[in-house]
Structures are given as C-alpha cells and as structure tokens.
Amino acid sequence: MNKHVDVLIVGAGASGIGVGIVLKQMGCGNFCVIDKGDIGETFRRWPKEMRFITPSFPSQGFGQTDLNAVAPKTSPAYTLDEEHPTGEEYAEYLEVLADHYQLPLRTKVEVKEIRKHNNQLFEVVTSKGKLCSKFIVWAAGEYQYPDFDVFPGAEHCIHSSQIHSWEEMKADDYLVIGGYESGIDALYQLNRLNKKTRLLAKTATWEIDSSDPSIVISPYTYGRMREALADDRIEMYENLTVSSVRKEGNSYYVETREGEQFTTCTPPVLATGYKGSTSMISQLFEFGEHGKPLVNEQDESTYCQGLFLCGPELRHGSHVFCYIYKFRQRYAVLAEAIGSRLNLNMDILELYQKENFYLDDLSGCGESCEC
Prior knowledge:
Blueprint: E1 4-10, H1 14-25, E2 31-34, H2 41-44, H3 76-80, H4 87-100, E3 105-106, E4 111-116, E5 122-126, E6 129-138, E7 158-159, E8 173-177, H5 181-192, E9 196-200, H6 219-229, E10 234-237, E11 242-248, E12 251-256, E13 261-264, E14 269-270, E15 307-309, E16 315-316, E17 319-320, H7 324-327, H8 331-342, H9 349-354
Parallel strand pairs: 1-2, 1-6, 2-3, 6-15, 7-14, 8-9, 8-14, 9-10
Antiparallel strand pairs: 4-5, 5-6, 11-12, 12-13, 16-17
C-alpha cells in the first residue's frame, strides 16, 4: 500500500465505493480506499433478515437510475435480481463495482488517529502503519457506531445493530424502544417469529403527514407494519419518551418522562439511532445544533480544510441525507472540489449530471407531494 496518496477514502461501503469510482473516472491515479472490515462491512453486519426499504429496479433505459445504485449505469436489481436486497447481497453489488472499476482498495485497515500538519498533509495512523494524504474523504458511515448515550441505563439494552439474526431472540416477549425504521423492523421480525412485542415510540412516525422519508416510515415498512398488527401480538405506545432503564435481578424497568413504567424480563431492544463514525474524529469538525458535522457547500469540514464528509451523517441545514439515493448525489460535488485542486479531468461530471447523480443546488430539496 502506497504510504503517500493524494486522496484517502475511509470506508468501503456505499459512499466510499461511490466516491472512489468518480475519482477513478476523473483520472486520479494516486488514491486509496481503506476499511477496517471488508467491502460493504456495514451491510454485512445487518441482521440477516433485514432488507433495503427502498426498492431497486433496473430502469436506466428510460432515464431513471436504480434508487440504491452508487454509480451511474449500474443497478443492484440487475446485479442481484432482488428488489429489496439483504445487506449481504448489497455487499456483493459493491464488490462487483470495486472489481469492475479496479479500485485501489485495502481491507482490514483500521484508522486509529488522524492528525493535520502545518504542511497541510494529513497523517493517518492505522492498524497497518502510517499514511499521509493531501485529502481525506470520510465515508465510514454510522451503523457500526450505535448510540448508547440516549438515556441512563441504555447499556442494559441490546441495540438493534448488534443483532445478527432475529432468530437468536429466544424469549417470547420483547420491548422495543424507538418508532422509526429500525424499531418497526424489529417489531415486524419479532412478530414473524410469533413473539409478543411492545413498542415505545417518542413520535408516531406512521401518523405524520409528510412525503419526506427522513421523517416518516417508508411505504415498504408501512405494509409490513400493517401485516404484523393483524396478528394481534403487538402493543404500540405513542408519544412516550424513555428516561431510563434499570435492571434489578432478572427484570428490566423502563421509565418514561410521562410517568409510565414498563417491565420486561429480556433486555429492551434499542432502536434509537447512532452516534456515527465522525465521533472518532470529532476534533476535526464543528458540530451544528442538529448534532451533526458542519460542512460547506462542497461537503468539506468547516473546521479542517481538506477533510470531506459523505454518507448518512451528511446534513445541510434542514436537509437530511440519510438514504443512498440522497447522499449519492453529493459524490460528484465532493469529487469535483478535490479534482479541481488536483487538476483532474472533469469531463465525467457531465454523465453524473445527466444521470441525476449531481446535486449542487439544494433549493429544490424537501418539496412535498401534492397528492
């Protein structure tokens, strides 16, 4: 592995592979993608029953790109023959792309520390030695970094991201905390296994009148929730904010700010989100009121020049880039910023613009459906 590169991409998931492809197409000959696991490691860690909620369909021939593609002219639906791929299947799609575009990639390389020197070079301390880079693209995602700081006693819970398969859940009764996608998925999977399940939700996401999937659950999730509710094994409690969890003997007591108490004999399933991988390098970012890193119009850290962010932690004001079809549109914008400083060939950007993979004007984001 070259110890001195122009661009180091940290993370070989959807964003790391996607940005790597753009840089390769722009003629960048000295960059590297690294990951502490394998290609698509985050997706490989999904529960084996978990599937994409956004549907895949090979519609490129009529100007519509697969929602889950990370590069133009590619489609997970075509590659995998799946509309809602599992995490393992999607990792296979990413592997195909890495091989097809011959990306310079090294796995099992974990970042320990990043320092920025006065000569403007980044020194990256990894499990396999030190690297130096002019630019860093942070694409390590958030799924592998669950948030246990949500309330006292959260350490007594099992985070949904720690579950390898729902079939491992052998008890008959579970309590799930969190009413967004992960919480409803837990509800559905446990019900499918004939488990009695209670769900505590701070916000009834299934009742919000909005077309923004960053706020409400997806149609795919709605359908599975309705299917599960029909079995009459589920209790859903709305507008409850969990304030603490305590363990006494073999029982877990869940308290809410509203004065409610729930008791369960199994660790509550925590589905309240992630602190994200940027928590590892928080000294290189400023953070906004939304709790996420602040970036400029090119997704570069407002605090540390040369450090770029892509993936589900990306925020621009009220715009939440939490889905692949959202944050993939920023890959080329980010790559253009780096490419202009490295004097790379920008011709490929025309294809990205044509294929709706280039979003530099955010004024039209967040518009609602009329019906």
